[in-house]
Amino acid sequence: MEIKVFKTAEEIGSAVASIFVDEVKNNPSCVLGLATGASPIPTYKEIIKAFENGGITFKDVKTYNLDEYCDLPKNDKNSYYTFMHEQLFNGLDILEENVHFLDGNAEDSEAECKGYDAEINAAGGIDIQLLGIGNNAHIGFNEPADSFTDGSFKVKLTDSTIEANKIYFDENPMPHYALTMGINQIMAAKKIILIATGPKKAEAIRNMVKGEVTPQVPASILQKHDDVIIFLDEAAASLL
Ligand code: GLP
Fold first, then answer.
1. Helices (H), 91-201
2. 152-180: burial string, b at 16+ Cβ within 10 Å, e else
């Protein structure tokens, strides 16, 4: 694991965005795994700036998002579909047919997950996977569990995750289920970038980097990937 510590979230955004921009320039039909949450927002802003400055196109780029809530309309203001369009896709020339999400409203969630995994494989796998981390060290929505998960699946969210994310929900209550890519699937990405900022993430970061590899700390599996870069601010790095 390579660990980089920055002073501000904006500096992290610039550094991570430049990795994505270089990838898209070198490999215009690359496959990107994308994440939601507050952590990637500065990165997405910088990617949009780079696009606006010219010399780069996203029209052959494919994206696959990590996760999506169940039982929330696709266009709800809190869906990850809406988040990604507002924070990134609407600012790029990416094609709608090339952006992919798990359908949290699919009647047969198992078939939905299998189909999503097959699509990612058919696209050649993920070149760069962006991750945030939950306060309980979840990645995607892989909550602490007794074993590491494989492909995409339907998950019941933990109280800790519901507590951390319910601030975004005012009208509708926060869903308690989601569809998420699984751990082995995340590990299959060629390169992984994880962003964490703020003191609430410090313990999860310490456990991920210094603790044993255990499904009780889902992000600890990243110790076993040979191309992971962790971008932290000083607060998130404070227990290392
Ligand atoms: C949610 C998402 C995760 C994200 C986490 C942390 O649980 N499913 O993918 O990493 O939130 O979000 P934030 O970056 O807002 O702290």
1. 109-122, 159-165, 183-187
2. bbbbebbeebeebbeeebeeeebbeebbb
Whether residue 55 has pLDDT greater than 90: yes
Please give the share of the chain, as a percent, with pLDDT higher than 70. Answer: 100
Residue of the nearest CA to atom 10 in ligand 1?
Answer: 132
The question of whether 143 is a catalytic residue gets the answer yes
CB-CB contact of 117 with 152 (8 Å): yes
Write down the pTM of the prediction: 0.96
DSSP for residue 53: T
Q: What is the pLDDT of residues 149-158, one digit of tens each?
A: 999 999 999 9
Known active-site residue 121:
no
Rounded Cα distance between 130 and 132, Å, is 7
Name residues whose C-beta falls within 8 Å of residue 119's C-beta, 6 or more positions apart in sequence.
Answer: 64, 100
CA distance 115 to 195: 28
Q: Which of 84, 133, 156, 195 for mutating ligand 1's site (highest number of atoms within 8 Å of CB)?
A: 133
> What pLDDT sits at residue 108?
97
pLDDT tens digit sequence for 3-22: 999 999 999 999 999 999 99
Fill in the amino acid letter for 207. N
CA angle at 201 for the pair 198 and 202, rounded to the nearest 5°:
95
Tokens of 3: 């660990």
Ligand 1 centre distance from Cα of residue 40 (Å): 9
Which two structure tokens, joined as six digits, stand for 141?
Answer: 């929505």
What is the identity of the amino acid at 38?
A
